[in-house]
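From the shared-data thread, chain only:
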Amino acid sequence: MPDASRPLSHPKGLYILFVTEMWERFNYYGMRAVLILFMTKALLFSKVFAANLYGSYTGLIYLTPLLGGYIADRYWGNRRSIITGGIVMAIGELILFVSASLFHSYAPVSLLLFFCGLGFMISGNGFFKPNISSLVGQLYVDGDKRKDTAYTIFYMGINTGGALGPIICGLTGDTGNPADFKWAFLAGGISMVISVLVQVAFHHRYVKDPNGNVLGLIPEGAPVKLLQPLIVIIGLLLTTFLMIGLLYLDAEVVNYLSYLLLAAVLLIAVIIFRDKSLTLAEKQRIKLIFIISFFVIFFWAAFEQAGASLTFFADEQTNRQLGWQIPVWSIQLVSVFLLYGLYRLFRKAGRQLASAADHLLRNTVYGLLFLFLAGIVGVNAYFLLQHENVLSLHEIPPSLFLSLGSIYIVLFAPFFAWLWPRLGKYEPSAPVKMAIGLLLLSLGYLWIAFGVNAVAPGTKVSIIWITGMYALHSFGELCLSPIGLSLVNKLSPLKFSSLLMAVWFLATAAANKIAGVLSTLYPERGRTISFGGYIIRDAYDFFLLFVIMVGAAGVLLLLISKRLSAMAVARK
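Structure, as tokens:
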């Protein structure tokens, strides 16, 4: 089919996947924003134990998609896996809500429910995460130029949810009163229910390939016995109980997860390189994927401090006082523009969803627009009834800072997408871009290290230091994450594409576990820590550790980038 005959607009299925993923990311990032605070302020875990448990949780979050993807490909199909995983995560959030409601009166029960809730979250994520993104590319024929734009739109959905989750969950749960954390978990659970409902209602109608075939259905030849509801429920419960056990074992008994991940990578390497059908060029490209994955560990281990040590820093050493007095008339003015935007969206939805076949989707969009309208009217009615002239904003909850990364991504992703092609022959190679990403991450830590240098313990520093650091970290992510993922997809031989994508996920899982371990080094007043001979006395020493670690990795990657680029284009 020639390009000229293809429609310029994207299929509606893309936006169904966009909304499904957005609400799931709202759930994950919103819960993640308050998790470390709930552990230390409600459950009264020590910072060291909480940080280590956080690393175990996020490490398993990125490990279980390997199992979920395998089951979806061979037995369940993408749609069933997405819906099942979403339901399990919603149950997990509900369990965490109950745990957060009981911690002050029934502490042992609350603790048990807390680990169970995390286990459900890990298990559900394993079935949800790997399956929805794989459907995006299947909406288009091979060679369709809209595919790259589609992934950009989908990536925006991820970060929209990543921005909204910490804001909503932070405002509802991180109020300074530990009893309110339950509302953050409830908000996450509601968002997960919305995600599941979108899939149930609209997948069969809109998530189709260019020939009109519904995507993500049960694979042909899948054993019927394994699809029976009772068998599925038993399998889910066993998987969830296994995740609870693995999480508890790593946090309380022995730190095995890092070794397990390393063993998995080595096993995959042995399986791949023992294949005699691989050409020398393919082996070179596979080696490149392993090398790049190694450097990715340094990036995410430092980047993922956001959920633990950097949240401690935002809570304890950042001056979050605003003292803003916002005039109510300015809120009313913004409301007028929002109402006009809603009117435009209402008209656009009516035009583009005018078909009788789209009546359910059209009415759903109308319903959502009405809810936004009710919210805007409600806020303005509140101020009128209270006779308020100003809105006072006193303090930012520490959890809200975790939304900054996604906000920066949404704002600056179009710039980076525009920048690389404009450089023409001067566009850096993929390894150089990734090295730049590491160096930007290191620069972010250098920025915040300057902010806390020579500051007395307990003194709070300006908000500019942490906001500037998150900006540099987001720029680094834009240079490394999409570039590295694309490189793995391009270089993987077809027969080993899944295994090599597993290497990427394993590297990310290992990085998240290491991030938790490194967060245990966060200095508390009066505590001096030695890490490999490096002495950490205060926040300056702690942040400088990441400047050195990530900066050294970035410089090394830059030095070998030419060699790596040659491996990528090897022909023999």
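Residues 1-6 have pLDDT under 50 and may be disordered.
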